[in-house]
Structure formats: structure tokens, C-alpha cells
Amino acid sequence: MKSMGATQEEYYRGVRMVPYDLVKELFIALAGVGVLALLAALILSSPDVAPVTIANWSQSDPVDFVTTATNELAGSSTSAAYGNPYNTVGAGQSWGPIAPQKWFGTRIPVDSANSFVIQPLQRASVGNSDLTSALDTWQKAAPDQQTKWLDAYTKALPDAKVVDGKVTVASGDYGPLPVMMSNLLGVAQAGGLDGLLVINGRFYQTDYTQPLLFIGDGGYFAGLAKDAQLTGSQWGMMNETGSYPGQTWLWLYTVWYQVPPFTSTTGFLGFNSSNADLGIIILMTVLTALLALVPFIPGLRDIPRWVPIHRLIWRRYYAPRKSTART
Amino acid sequence: MAARNSVETEAPADSKSWTLRVRRAIDSHLPMDHLLPDRQPYYVGSWVYVFGVVTIAALAWVIVSGVVLSFMGPQWWHDSHLGRFFNSLHFWSVQLFFIFMVLHLWGQYFMAGWRNGRAATWMIGVVIFAVSILTAFTGYLSQQNFDAQFIAVNAKDAMNSAGIGAFFNVLNFGQMYGLHIMLLPIGVTILVVLHIVMVRTRGVVKPIDPEGGAQP
User: Fold this and answer.
1) pTM above 0.90?
2) Residue A103 to residue B163, Cβ atoms within 8 A
3) Least confident of A49-53, A224-228, B129-133
4) Do A171 and A281 fall within a single domain?
5) CATH code of B197's domain
6) Which of A204, A207, B28, B155 is the most buried (most CB within 10 A)?
């Protein structure tokens, strides 16, 4: 077998070679890029908008907080009806028989009603007889009765008033819900719910699945994102708060969310707005594979030969010359 | 000196030594004058060739600033001016890294850099691009600020729809942070080293022959 060293020498045989200092070039590049990055860091800094906490959500928009918590209890919030990997309520996205969301099952179980409302209230009920009694009434009530209370309370919440940070609704038959929600709001406003949703019986914790799902279910978080022009219809994940560039390299991924069939309800070839996430992941996987396989795809690999950009790059080679034969 | 010569003389030409075989393979495939060349073909004179080396330089700054940030912990840069500076240095190094990498990619595309046995080098380059996007994505998720929250809440739907979310939980800060500061940077670095070795092994590709094709 011929050595690669000999092969490179054969490859360049007859080509005029000129002096070159690779290490010097690398050091100059390190210095140049370092200066650019340093100047950008010093002059432009970087974005760091404080995260939303359940405490500041419940203080800033108590009605939205209570409405979201009621939806969690009713099983009508986004996370409660999500499907896998959190629960089996929603069917998840699929494209014909391709349903990977379903295939891998409920690997990160989240019971929104219990995790976000009942369990935190049970912890907060120690020494609170009103709350203990309300929880007891709720848990002993028949599901039909619970649904009636939830329906009535949900209908009353849009007209709720906020007085001194507390949410009050018009008189009605809401069962124990006003007491439960008032206590949950109080715990949340004091910052207790931020902690209760992450501890899960552990001391050390780095998993924010539950609080992020709960915050994401509310309208307050979405409103802040919309104000910061971050939402999907405004190019979504590639955006960043402030005037920073964000993940511009995701532009091709994000652009598909702006165009049919992924914006359409009727769709094309089974892809539509209801399975846009799956459709776009499949599309981007195919496009990435095509990019990797460009050397083997006739047409795509020939474009560089047809487009004379290479004549600019290698203008010395293509320029008419007095000596030095081309190889 | 004499003793060393006698040892070399005693070594059989067809030695079964693994060490000798590895050394011979390296000497054969990537001699030092190919790894660190002091001469290059005269046609290597465009700024396009600079995009590769500046991408590596930006990666070096990403790693240096990232090591400082990871050493001090994820909370440091929120509470300290010096931390904020290092985060900004990391942030802009990443931006420069992607700008240069994309320019390098397009440059290599229009040079049909995969010709004459260089298809694997191109393919590894595309993999580096994809893994770099994943690394940056986990970085954005590890910021512990409003951007990180928004990206996590939105990205979960795409990840879950493809079944990836069952194993790659974007809402789990610990998982994202661990991947971002350990496994993914190591992956990018190894792939970049492999890419450079492949480039140096084959040398830069010749200009496109107007009469020839663009096959690998």
C-alpha cells in the first residue's frame, strides 16, 4: 500500500510550492479573533434578563396564576393534556405510522393537578385548619361535583378582582376552591411554590421540569415573551432578549415555522400545523444528511463548477501567466 | 549513543510490537512535514483559506472562556462584573465561531473541497457543524435567565415530538449543563482535531478543473 505521504507528494507533483508559516498564521488568528471577542465583550456585554419566578408571576398577575392553577386542577392546561413524555392524556404528534413521541412512553411523569396544586397545598396545610378542611372536602367530593365547582370557578375568574394581591370572584357555588386557591396564591407569592415544585423529597436539585411546565402553562410568561419579540411567530428560538443576535444559526430550522405546510391546518403530505414540530425535525434531519452527502449527489456537487466563485478564490491559478504550467 | 544504535539494530524489521506499528502508521500517514507544513501550493492565496484557521482560533477562545465560567460555577456570572465579562467573552467567541464556521463551510462548498478523496473530511465538517449547534443550544439552556426559560419551554415541544425529549430533557438544567460543559465540548474538540488531521493528511485540494468533475 502506498503511504499517504507519498500520495500527497504525488498529488502536488509539478505544482509550484511557496513558503508558508502555519504556526505563525495560527497565532495571528488567535490574537485577531481574541481582540475582536474582547472588544465585543467590553463594548456590547451579553444579555441577562432575570428569570421569571412563580413568586413574581403570582405577585404581578394573580388572576392569571389562579386561572392557570385552576386549569391544572381541571386537567385542561397545556401540560395536563400534553401526552408523552409527561403523561398519556394527549396523543402527541405523529406523521402516519411515525409517532416517536408515543414510542418512548411516559419517561418524565408529571401529574399537573397533584404536582402543581394538591401536593403543595398538602404541605402548606400544616397548622392551617381552613385549608386542611378545604382539601378534605375537595378530596371527598365526587368527580362530578369537582367538575361543577371547577366549571363555575373558571367562568367566574375572567371577572375576578384583585384587592391587596388577593383574587376575589363573584359569589357562587365553588366548593372549597376559593380557600384552596387563596392559599396556593399566598404560598406562591411568598416564594414557597418555587421551592415546593423542585424539591420532590430531595435536597440537591437541578431539574426544573415541573416549575417550567407550570410557568409555561400561564399567560404571564407568554406575554413577557411576546413583549420581548421571542415567540414562534416572531422567529422563535433563534431570537434573544434585547438587540443581541441570538442563535442565528437556527434560521433555517426556524423559517419552516413561518411557511406552509407547517402553518396550514390542511397541510401537505400529512404535514400541517398540528404536527409541525415533528415535520420540521424530519425535514431538517433530511437536509442535514443531504448537506453531509453533497459529495455524492450529482447536481448538488456540480454547482461549484457551474458557479464561477472558484475563479475568484483561485484567481492566481486561472489568470493567464507567463510561466508555471498548470497541473 | 552506541547503546541506542545497538537497540535499533536488534529490532526486527517485521516486529509485532503494537507501539512500532502505531508509530510507523503515524509516520506513514501523517509525517511532521504534512502536519506542520512550511510550504504550500502557490494557488493557496485567498482569504477563503483564513476562515478555517480563524474558526479554530474562535473555538480556542470559546474553550478558554468556558473553562473559567465552568470553574466558577453557573451562578457566578450573574452576580459579578468579572463573571459577566467572561460570559460576554464566551458569548461573542461563540458568535464569531459560528460566523467563521459558516463562511468556511460555504467557502469549501464553492471550492468543492471534497474532491480527490476528501469526502470524509467534508462529512466530518458537517457533523462538527451539527454538534456545535447542539452544544450552543445546551449553552443557551444553561444560562439560568429568561432566555434560557423561554428556549426550554418552546424547544421541549420539538424535542418531545421527535421522541428525543424522553432522553434529552431541555427543562432539566443539570442535564443540559453537564452536556454543555463536558460531553459536547469534548465531542466538538475531538471532531475538530480529526478534521484537521484529515486536512493535513491530504493537503489542500487543487483548483477545480473546468474540464473535470466535482466527484469526491
Assistant:
1) yes
2) yes
3) A224-228
4) no
5) 1.20.810.10
6) B155
